[in-house]
Design brief:
Length: about 325
């Protein structure tokens, strides 16, 4: 028998800048071409920070569950027109209301998770990002790859690139994150101190002087964009994986031109590509290519949402990725 669906549910509501709590709200209705998912968890993402910190164009309170977009859970109701998933399927899904007990999604926005992942948290959209960035980077065995930023996305890219036989250098301000990058396969790690010139020089030495086939910028800041740009070899690829959310950027186009580098914007948000990325991620986690054991570092209940956002903002030692669960 199908499980009972309560009429009200817990959901995170961001009430204003740096104010959030779990509220009780109506459980969402699902349409004939939608499913209702009992959420097991949702990743807390760097792109959530503007909603938490406040921006002039945001109207508070935000809708319940927003901006949680890395949800996974179990399909508990399906509309009449839905044929591609069944009740009880465990899925990751695209929805930006997933900081809640329940969420709705259309079948096209779902990735059914294999039974072998039953115990694993699966912040699908973040994992899909890693897979899509990796695919666009076109990294092959023997290439030299620099990953600038060793957060959740950067760490995943270090693991995938190392696994295909690339020589990976990881760069971060946080020694703790670099230790993890080493365990995930990085050949060398570089602490990003105050002197970016020295950091670039050390990395260029590691590359043998000619630079890297791929330099992946996985932070989303002007400074790391500058740094990664300088590492790319002639006709190499600058892969922009960070989310640059806080304004325009300046680039040294002359230097890009003279080296003839390819610049890849790898953090695309097309829904079809995001779902394809989630499916690739499910395969990668099943096969062991992507191991989340060390990279999901914190778990919070919905009621502790403020602590989760504060931690995301401060990124203390030992923090890589948090998930929120009902
Ligand atoms: Zn995200």
């Amino acid at each position: 028998m199908a499980e009972t669906i309560p009429t009200t549910m817990g959901a995170v509501v961001i009430e204003g800048p740096r104010r959030a709590a779990r509220h009780w709200v109506p459980t969402p209705e699902w349409g004939e071409d939608e499913v209702l998912i009992r959420v097991e968890g949702c990743g807390v993402c760097g792109s959530n920070l503007p909603a938490w910190e406040g921006r002039p164009w945001l109207r508070y309170p935000l809708p319940p569950g927003s901006p949680g977009h890395e949800g996974w859970g179990v399909v508990v109701r399906a509309g009449k027109q839905v044929t591609s998933v069944a009740l009880g399927d465990r899925v990751s899904f695209l929805s930006d209301r997933a900081f809640a007990d329940y969420a709705t999604a259309s079948p096209a926005a779902l990735c059914v998770l294999p039974a072998s992942l039953a115990k694993s948290p699966f912040p699908g959209d973040a994992l899909g990002c890693i897979m899509n960035i990796f695919r666009r980077s076109q990294i092959r065995a023997g290439q030299k790859v620099a990953v600038v930023g060793a957060g959740f996305i950067g760490a995943g890219l270090v693991a995938l690139a190392s696994r295909v036989g690339a020589h990976v250098a990881a760069v971060s301000r946080r020694p703790w994150a670099l230790d993890l990058a080493s365990r995930l396969g990085a050949k060398e790690t570089f602490v990003m101190g105050d002197d970016d010139f020295a950091t670039v020089r050390a990395l260029m030495d590691f590359s043998g002087g000619e630079g890297f086939h791929q330099a992946i910028e996985a932070v989303g800041a002007q400074r790391t964009l500058n740094l990664a740009s300088q590492l790319v070899a002639t006709q190499g690829r600058l892969v922009i994986a960070g989310q640059h959310q806080d304004g325009l950027r300046q680039v040294d186009l002359q230097s890009w031109n003279t080296r003839g580098i390819d610049v890849i914007n790898a953090h695309e948000r097309n829904p079809g590509h995001r779902v394809a990325g989630m499916r690739a991620a499910a395969d990668a986690v099943c096969s062991g290519a992507l191991d989340l054991t060390e990279s999901i570092t914190h778990r919070f209940e919905l009621a502790d949402v403020a602590s989760a956002f504060t931690m995301l903002e401060q990124r203390p030692e030992g923090f890589l990725k948090a998930v929120l669960s009902p």
